[in-house]
Amino acid sequence: MMSQITPITMPKFGLAMTEGKVALWSKPEGAEIKVGDELADIETTKITNAYESPVRGNLRRHVAPEGEDLPVGALIAVVADAGVPDAEIDAFIAQFQASFAIKGGDVAAAPPEPKTMQAGAWTIRYLETGEGQDGTPILLIHGFGGDLNNWLFTQPALSERHRVIAIDLPGHGGSTKQMDSGDLSTLAGAVVSLMKALDLPACHLVGHSLGGAVALQVALDEPGRVAAVTLLAPAGMGGPINHAFIQGFITSGRHKQLQPVLELLFADPTLVSRDMAEEVLRFKRLDGAEQALQRIADASFDGDRQRISLREQAAALGAVPVQVIWGEKDQILPPGADLPGGWTLHTLPDTGHMPHMERSAEVNRLILDFTAG
C-alpha cells in the first residue's frame, strides 16, 4: 500500500539554494491535482516562486506549515489515493522524517562556481553546467542591470538536457566594467568572443530584455554560431521603454530607493525580497559599475524610447528560428511589439518583465520544447 503514497519535497530552485519555506499553500488538503498545477508559493532568499506539482493524485496532507524554513529535500506534502487510510499516511510521514533526519537531510554536492575567462579584450564571468549533455548548447544572456544569477530558476532545468552557459555582459556582475562604448555591437562582440574562447558549436541563444537585442545582434553578425533564439521580453524592436525604471535603477543608492524600482519588474511586487535589492546594491557599488550602466543606457535608450531597432534586419535571419516570450503585465517594455513575421509569440498572463523568474516552469518548458523542435 505504501507504493500508492508519493512524497512532495522542498524543491531546489537555483544551484545554490539550500532551504526554503512554504509561503502559501495554493491547493488545500484533499484537492485533486494534476502535473503542472501550482501547489504552493515557495519563498527563498532570492525570490518567491510558484511550485508546480510533479505528480497527479489527491493532495492528502500538508506536512510543512506555512512560514517554516526547511532544507531542500524535506517532506512538505503527501499525495495518495483517496482510499489509502490515514494511518498509512501517518506511518509514511514518520518513516520519511526519520530517514531524512538520519541522513542529515539531502547532502547536496557543492554548487558549481562561476569562472572568469579572457575573451578578446574582455574579462567575462560565466557559469557553466550540464557538461556532457547531448542537446544543443544554450547560452543565457541577461538584461540591463542583471547578471548570470537572473537565471537561477532556468539554468538547472535546462542543464538536465543541455550544456548551459550563463554569462555576465560587460559592465555587469563579475565581468569587465571599463568600457569605451556601451553600444549593442560592443556587447554582442563580447558574447561572440566568449563563444570563440569556449570553442562552442552553434548555440541556442536565450536573451532577456536588452540581452534579447544582444542575442539578435549575435545572430545577425555570426549566424553560423546560432542554432535558434529565444527572446524574453526583448529590447531591440524600437518603441517605448520605461525611462523611470532605467534611471531609477542607475541612480538608486539605498534600499528604500531601489525597492520600488525593482518592483516594476514583476506583476506581483511582493516577489521582490530585501536580499534581492541588497544584492543589486552590492553590484552597483563595484568600481565602474554605475558608470558602465550609464554608458550602456545612453547607447541603448533615448529618454522613454529605444535607440535600437533590429526589426527589419532580424526579419532576414531566415533559417534561424526565433520564439518570443512576453508577460502581459510588463511595465518596462510593453508587450506586443511589432515583431517580424514567422516568429512564434507566447504571451503569459499575470506576468511582468521577468517571465523566467515569475513563470519559470512554463518558460523552461517552452525553451526545452523549442530546442527539441
From TrEMBL:
- What PROSITE patterns does UniProt report for this protein, alphabetically? BIOTINYL_LIPOYL
Q: Which Gene3D superfamilies match?
A: 2.40.50.100, alpha/beta hydrolase
Q: Write the protein's name.
A: Acetoin dehydrogenase dihydrolipoyllysine-residue acetyltransferase subunit
Top-level taxon: Bacteria
Write down the NCBIfam families for this protein, in alphabetical order.
PRK14875.1
Q: Name one GO cellular component term.
A: membrane
Please give the InterPro entries that the UniProt record associates with this protein: AB_hydrolase_1, AB_hydrolase_fold, AB_hydrolase_sf, Biotin_lipoyl, Single_hybrid_motif
Pfam family, any one: Abhydrolase_1
GO terms, molecular function: monoacylglycerol lipase activity
What Gene Ontology terms for biological process does this UniProt record contain?
Answer: acylglycerol catabolic process
Domain named Lipoyl-binding is located at 5-80
